[in-house]
Amino acid sequence: MKARFIALATLLASTSFSEESVTPVVVPLFQAPANSEEAFNTEALAQFVALVQQQDWPTARMLADEIITEAEGLPRFDLYYGILLMQERAFDQAIFPLERVLFTNPSQHRARLELGRAYYFLGNFERAKVELNQVLAINPPTNVKTRVETLLAAIESAQSSRDISNVVGVSLLAGWDNNANGGSSLDEALDSNLLGLTELSNDSEPLSSGFGQWSINYALIKPTSQTGSQRLLFDYTNRLYTEPELPSTHTFTLGGLITSEQDKLRSSLPITIQLALAKDSLAQLTFDANYQLELLAWGPLWAGVKIGTQPSISVNDSSSTSVKDMAALVLNASERGRDHTFLSQYLQTSIAGEEDGHIEWRAMANQYQLNWPLKPALSLTSQFEHQWRIYKDEDLFFTVDEESTKLKTRQDHILSLNSQVNWQASPWLTSQTRLSFEWLRSNINAYERNRFAISQAISVQF
User: Where are the TPR repeats (predicted)?
Assistant: First the structure.
């Protein structure tokens, strides 16, 4: 870390000495500039302070660059310049002006609070606690006290998370799904077709059902830095339906996650292997891997890319072997504790060993996700997505002549909404209320469907 002070500590020799004692003169760690606030352009300084208070960060930065040579060392400028540097995540640079403020004015606790935050983000937790506890000692206003206590709790959590941890969890879930098999939900007759069929088979009609589910999971977490970690995850889930025609499912998942975050660069690499089993209908092994890399673009905005692949291998003849690929642009921003994520994705799925235009498709998808902490123990996660899928071939099953063939290249529009409310009743007990809705409209009406599901889960963590 850069040196925060330039220590001159030079002993000046006197031309004459007293016989009784010699008192050397010590130059302080830094001196106030020769100019004073009165001698400086107070109008420019006041404008800079106002810009910071208004959170007009780009304009404040331009003005700071203009006046820093003359204004640096003035406590009022140093305080707000430190706040500006904190907003720009230049935490190491913010320390010097903030400490300079406290050297001349130790009771300036706004500077002390920002200094504590700077040390926290730099990983110097012990020094951060010293500064933050001094702010608490003056009994600050409630909002400041809450902010400091939140930071101290985060420090405690970060320090304890440096050790390898083992976490075991159990979840119980109950819910209802109005289209548990993903069947077609037509409200009109089928288009005419070459075979003259106008009825859906029983297998393709929607089935509503209640369901119950229980899961057990295990996580091994190894921190690699203050913000990075490696995780090994295992999960077994069993879902049972009240509708007799729907088979129970068993899912075994083994996963790993590597994360890293620096001041202006962060990445994540999740990898999972999943085996899904259902009686007499499904046995499939799926491998899923994606890599996401983001750069701090401007202010709180992160921008990056995400790529991934998901091959699924059929273990029996009842399902097909396929590959799903994706590439996306990612934007992420956090404000007032809320985290916003937007993805614009290219998706495609293909069937290995054959060309089936009824199944293979390419798509553009836009997704928005919001993570919103409503209260200290309550949070909301919502995700909205639109997909536009175009299938590879004409669906000849639903064509009559050449003119209708042109209209029967299948295109689907899928809107989906998923929301979850989490209530952290205690460190070991979490309640999750989930709601999902999917609406599919196709130019071939046999593929249209609606799906609504709601569930309530309780998770216990050891």
Answer: 109-142
